[in-house]
Prior knowledge:
Helices cover about 35% and strands about 25% of the residues. It is of the alpha+beta class. It has twelve helices and 19 strands. α1 crosses α10 (about 350-360), α3 packs across α5 (about 130-145) and α8 (about 235-245) runs antiparallel to α9 (about 290-310).
Amino acid sequence: MPKTKEIQAVSNKQRLAELASRREVHAAFSWLRAHEREITESQMELARIPAPPFGEQARTAWMLKKFRELGLKDVHADELGSVFGTAPCTEPGAPAVAISAHIDTVFPAGTPVEVRKDKDGKLHGPSVSDNCSGVAALLAIASAIVNCELEHEGDIVFIGDVGEEGEGDLRGMRHIFSAENKKKWRDRIGYTVVIDGNGHDTIVNQALGSKRFEVTVHGKGGHSWADFGAANPIVVLARALAEFYKTPIYDGPDSKSSYNVGVISGGTSVNSIPQSASARVDVRSTAPAEMERIADQLRQCMVRAGMDEMVVPGRQRGQAISEMEPGSVRVEIKQIGERPAGKLKDDCQILQVARAVDAHLGIASQMRLASTDANIPISLGMEAITLGSGGSGGGAHTLQEWFDPEGREIALKRILLVLLMLAGE
């Protein structure tokens, strides 16, 4: 370790030891322990509020109410529905620290929302872990800071953001760190701590990039008997996707990739040749060039499958045509999402602080790659990490999702210490 890094590590360790010994910090730890029941109740209450993609309004209203009840300052929602509240600093002009948890879910409108707690204390229901556990942790930390009157040099900005999941494409965080909000947020925030999911021993320091596509095959359609032999968009699409799934993945020490067909649709009845069929495809990689290679393979597979069906009088199979003709199909490829990739420098302050806190708490932390709200600030060259909310969970993005709050306390202590260290206690 270079000498400057050694000095910084010693400095963080000394600052942390002094911070953790303070009476008011111990009072905050006790507050978190004593209010576990209320933390769990707020988690269940939020999970019962539907928040489909682009339909988070009810949770926005709930977060506004909670932030005001906690006594945070400058509580408001932005144009997209993300909610903000600030624990003011003691030293105006110091960089602010943002702590965020996304309030949206992957579940479409109309999904049954049944949340329950079993006799062992486990919570069950869609979004109860991802990310109601993160929001519950966010509210708990805000409550501890306000109630125990913890001082900090920089503002701590609490954010319940929208649009993290699926086709939301990180839209809430994109807006917060957009050029139009440069003076309000981007120039003001020095560090960002994202709370997402469960657990307490990982640090997301690398942002996993992704591209998402909607691919559609259009045809003339027709009657299954009278028009038998006409090009069937479902068959063309199936052939293209089957070919795409032969695409090799070249993983290495610094490169990991994946692809997935998550949605497929088309057709109107069993006795109709459909006029269209579509699928939604997710491509991910730590390496932008590899992600583009896989995306290009998807495009080629779609085009080849379409050309194979373009058989018309006087033309050879596979010969391209410019317009729809009898027996032909048209392939449409539309990008519907993109998440930027990036990686923190190993010696950046936010990672050094997180490691120091984990060492102090006896946590054997692991660096992790993931796609979270932290992708946005990391891709802009800013310091941001994602931490878990504690406890354990499973079944994310399914109706069988669950969360066990046992062990949540150490994660809350961890988050609080990281925040106070970054905010310059």
